[in-house]
């Protein structure tokens, strides 16, 4: 068997998640647990926790699925169910796609790539080329292809943050490459310190590791940070000087909760706003339909933009994409809709804005409520979520709890999270699943439980924490 | 850069396909080519060539996309557009799935896996366990995961047929494993000769290659063969004796054109019908929604059943699946519909059967027409397609054509196919993209062009071939 696969760890769907499934089965059979439901806060999966999909997006998707609805003989019935702009959008898409049941171009449907390029140009104020855009089955697939191309062998090093989203560590294990961790600074809102980055690179290089790329997740998962433009410029200069490819995971670009103080800037925009010598920096930026206010995780859609990537590498990217034939067309359609949503004046615009707006403000309220809840707990501190869907509180556990965890052969944070699951039905992920500074303990929780249950949710967590602390108080 | 990726060849979407795209662009701009359209016979992509989707499947899919259509206040309008069984099926699916926008279980939605298990049990007469079924993003993704787990390093050998579907050779290149080719016997309807298999294995093992698995594509791509039950039993005995995992790619299981003489048998069924000592043989069987009469390639859905696979390997399979989070839910829904289509008595049954039946008989007619056309050409011989969607004629080219090809730095079959594309707009794939017996030349063509254009299509190919032969006649 492939030994690298044995080393893969994937905490988001690991021990805690599997135990949560087992408890859910148990709940379905008996009522013998101290809670009524399992609350999956282990994964950023909004529609699993009752977030409603965007109506316009689903309307267009369903018309593309069932083009009989667009036949003129059905129009008088269908127009009672669908607004005119949804019908028109589906017609335009099908004109370009043909059937959603056909394999598409391996790189993604050209018309949709053009719409992605327009979106990027409008967002950044700098042009984008559809030829540099690849549609993917979620950002996950894009990240995995790019890493597989950059990695030569064990000697290849890829800089990844601590803490990080485990897609990165897991993919590097699979490829048998060397992760080169750098620390995000919890005391500075999880920002990057370029001096630390330089140390990480020179140490790795001194050990014979060929450091080729730097992964940045911004807005951050699990940290919720949102980088300042100044910090981003330093990072770009660093990559340029060190001849390192920059991989920018920007899937949370619209989950921004302090837009004045901490707006989102894309790395592409910051790069293009800098002196033209930096424009040659190799940058790949990832985006997804799974996050933002859209939350269409189950469709698996996304894209990456490859900026200034070596043409030979570009041709390898195409080849890899073609072995898997094409990304699923439904995901591609959602990418189109995400990039070109209804505009002012369109029949669906008002409803669309209202839906996006209400999800957004609810997410912001929930993030603050949960942050306040965590910060009110004994021994817990938690940075605010400037972005993304998660909080990553630090927990200071009593020595007795740590000893008890050790006696059970568990890391202390894992032990804490398992007790939380047993007591409350809430499933979170221990900090060790993401990596954390030696000697500190954290866990990651989404703030996605439905708003009407949120007070209960916070109260349950608070009660659990109190009991846990009392149980293990020294 | 990853050197293994440089070695990947993927002919189905290679030079010919890229040139065909360029010619299509040229056609859109000017009318200066000797044909009116590009006909993509390079890929089994039925809906690209105007095959209609199955109405019931698309109805259910569209209802799952837009659950507002299921609201009771819309029912009086919606029931003018949708039959009752489509509405009910969508309701059942959504009850189990929640939202199609949520990440599902990494292994696939449990309810759908149960339906797959029922389908397998009905097909084979032997039970299947939903826990052994993984839903995948097309068979491609399933094959890639399983191979990535079986391959340890360069020393791992995987038996693959010559000719083969290039997913296999490409994936082995990517994984830097050793392909161990075995020949399909063109003179015996492309069947497998177990003595040859034994020779391939012992030679490879003598060279230090650890042969772990045998890939069989049945019905065959590109060959169109359909194996006899007797041949399958020999293969199973061979794998059992040699302790080799059997990977059965059965995506064309319903594309069977001589059901009396050459019916499809699944390897699972044949295995279970044999003496129980063989039941321990490790077998993975792949299926897909892309083929058959369904042809929903763009959705990327499929499954594999893992039979008697080592539990430790099973847990690695789960881990790999979870790194990619989950297969797209739309593809999963189509797997459900493929496995449990409308039944006798359901409102949609008649239409469903009529649609499947008419696609089936048209495919069969087209396969015979194209076979007859190929066999009528000078120097060309072609086995019938007992299954799948392709013919793989052998072409005997004049020495002058071979010399001219060499002078252009091209393989002779590639040269022939490029000239065909230039003259007719028909894009096929040279035999070298699949592998062929040394000193023989072939090409693969689907028989998917629409039936009303089929006579023209055959005539164009015939005229091209005559001109080619005359041009290069010695
Ligand atoms: C930082 C980050 N990147 C990528 C992904 C993958 O998203 P998807 O593959 O659904 O697009 C996630 C999902 O949670 C994520 O948090
Ligand atoms: C033999 C064979 N296996 C697997 C596949 C992949 O099918 P998909 O990934 O669309 O399910 C194909 C597609 O043509 C094929 O011919």
Automatic annotation (TrEMBL), chains A, B:
* Pfam families linked: Aminotran_1_2
Q: Annotated Gene Ontology MF terms?
A: pyridoxal phosphate binding; transaminase activity
Span of domain Aminotransferase class I/classII large: 83-452
UniProt keyword Transferase, yes or no: yes
InterPro entries registered for this protein in UniProt: ALAT1/2-like, Aminotransferase_I/II_large, PyrdxlP-dep_Trfase, PyrdxlP-dep_Trfase_major, PyrdxlP-dep_Trfase_small
User: Sorted alphabetically, which SUPFAM superfamilies does this protein's record hold?
Assistant: PLP-dependent transferases
Q: Which cofactor does it need?
A: pyridoxal 5'-phosphate
Q: Which UniProt keywords apply?
A: Aminotransferase, Pyridoxal phosphate, Transferase
Transferase recorded as keyword: yes
Say which family it is in. Belongs to the class-I pyridoxal-phosphate-dependent aminotransferase family. Alanine aminotransferase subfamily.
What is its quaternary makeup?
Homodimer.
PANTHER family of this UniProt entry?
A: ALANINE AMINOTRANSFERASE (PTHR11751), ALANINE TRANSAMINASE (PTHR11751:SF29)
What's the protein name? Answer: Glutamate pyruvate transaminase
Protein species of origin: Umbelopsis ramanniana AG
């Amino acid at each position: 068997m492939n030994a690298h696969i044995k080393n893969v760890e994937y905490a988001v769907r690991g021990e805690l998640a599997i135990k949560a499934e087992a408890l859910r089965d148990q709940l379905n059979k008996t009522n013998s647990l101290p809670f009524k439901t399992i609350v999956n806060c282990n994964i950023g999966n909004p529609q699993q926790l009752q977030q409603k999909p965007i109506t316009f997006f689903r309307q267009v998707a369903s018309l593309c699925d069932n083009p009989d609805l667009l036949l003129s003989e059905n129009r008088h019935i269908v127009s009672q169910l669908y607004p005119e702009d949804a019908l028109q959008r589906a017609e335009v898409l099908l004109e370009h796609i043909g059937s959603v049941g056909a394999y598409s171009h391996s790189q993604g449907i050209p018309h949709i790539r053009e719409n992605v390029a327009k979106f990027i140009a409008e967002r950044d104020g700098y042009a984008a080329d559809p030829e540099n855009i690849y549609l993917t089955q979620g950002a996950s697939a894009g990240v995995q292809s790019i890493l597989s191309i950059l990695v030569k062998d064990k000697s290849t090093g890829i800089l990844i943050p601590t803490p990080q989203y485990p897609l990165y560590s897991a993919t590097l294990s699979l490829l048998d490459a060397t992760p080169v961790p750098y620390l995000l600074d919890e005391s500075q809102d999880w920002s990057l310190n370029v001096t630390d980055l330089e140390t990480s690179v020179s140490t790795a290089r001194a050990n014979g590791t060929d450091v080729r790329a730097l992964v940045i997740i911004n807005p951050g998962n699990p940290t919720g940070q949102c980088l300042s433009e100044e910090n981003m410029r330093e990072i770009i200069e660093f990559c340029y000087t060190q001849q390192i490819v920059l991989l920018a995971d920007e899937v949370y670009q619209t989950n921004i909760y302090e837009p004045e103080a901490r707006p989102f800037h894309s790395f592409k925009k910051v790069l293009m706003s800098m002196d033209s010598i930096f424009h040659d920096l190799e940058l790949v930026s990832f985006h997804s339909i799974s996050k933002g206010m859209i939350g269409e995780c189950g469709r698996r859609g996304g894209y990456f933009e490859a900026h200034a990537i070596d043409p030979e590498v570009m041709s390898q990217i195409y080849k890899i994409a073609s072995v898997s034939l094409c990304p699923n067309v439904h995901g591609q359609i959602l990418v189109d809709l995400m990039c070109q949503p209804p505009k002012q004046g369109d029949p669906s615009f008002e409803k669309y804005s209202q839906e996006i707006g209400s999800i957004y403000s609810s997410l912001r309220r929930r993030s603050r409520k949960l942050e306040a809840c965590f910060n009110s707990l004994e021994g817990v501190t938690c940075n605010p979520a400037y972005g993304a869907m998660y909080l990553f509180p630090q927990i200071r556990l009593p020595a007795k709890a740590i000893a008890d965890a050790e006696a059970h052969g568990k890391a202390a944070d894992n032990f804490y999270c398992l007790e939380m699951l047993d007591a409350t039905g809430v499933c979170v992920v221990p900090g060790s699943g993401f990596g954390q500074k030696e000697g500190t303990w954290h866990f990651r929780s989404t703030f996605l439980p439905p708003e009407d249950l949120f007070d209960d949710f916070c109260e349950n967590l608070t009660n659990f924490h109190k009991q846990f602390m009392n149980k293990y108080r020294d």
